[in-house]
Amino acid sequence: MVAHMNAAALQKTIATGEAWYFSRSRRSLWRKGEKSGHVQHVVSMHIDCDQDAVWLRVEQKGAGACHTGRRSCFYRKVPLGSWPVSLEFSQSERAFDPKAVYGK
Amino acid sequence: MVAHMNAAALQKTIATGEAWYFSRSRRSLWRKGEKSGHVQHVVSMHIDCDQDAVWLRVEQKGAGACHTGRRSCFYRKVPLGSWPVSLEFSQSERAFDPKAVYGK
Q1: Residue A42 CA to chain centroid, in angstroms?
Q2: What confidence tens digit (pLDDT) does each residue in A2-45 have?
Q3: For residue A53, what is the nearest residue in chain B, using CA coordinates?
Q4: Distance (Å, rounded) from C-alpha A3 to C-alpha B56?
Q5: Closest residue of chain A to B77, computed from CA coordinates
Q6: B15: number of Cβ within 10 Å
Q7: What is the predicted pLDDT for the residue at A103?
Q8: Is there a contact between A73 and B17 if contact means CB atoms under 8 Å apart?
Q9: Is residue B86 packed enough to be buried (19+ CB in 10 Å), middle (13-18) or exposed (0-12)?
């Protein structure tokens, strides 16, 4: 998954070892898994050369990270070599029912 | 590495199987490795749930991807559990001399 962090989310992630993000749509700090229970234990964190991106390796608790019910948000493959493209579903089985978990 | 793509960069990457990005500082399309020769052959490309992020697995040609001369941009580890943090260098050996390659 890819998500946004603000300073508070970064600090909480580092201090607690659990992934916190900042929800730009809700304008609020967001502990990953706070609704679903699908929290992320951070295994390692690296920061990039210009220090505007962090890369988390996590142990994903619960069924999955994606709000669509998949394990990963990257469940569609983009085939190469031709244009236009048709996305191919790949490891796209639903690991949980998002309606049951998020109520929407 | 993390970089930006515009529509043209995305289309060129898909069509050619080599990584193209869009340089926001230079405001121009950027074939990765055009100066350094450190091109990226795309092994696979996935797109995320809300289709605003693509994840490339690449075969990195040449010495490295990072403008600082490292293999990866993520050469510093963020230790967890305390605040403030001191970054730890990790796999941070220079694989090439950026001055020689980029002339700056």
Answers
A1: 12
A2: 999 999 999 999 999 999 999 999 999 999 999 999 999 999 99
A3: B2
A4: 17
A5: A46
A6: 14
A7: 85
A8: no
A9: exposed
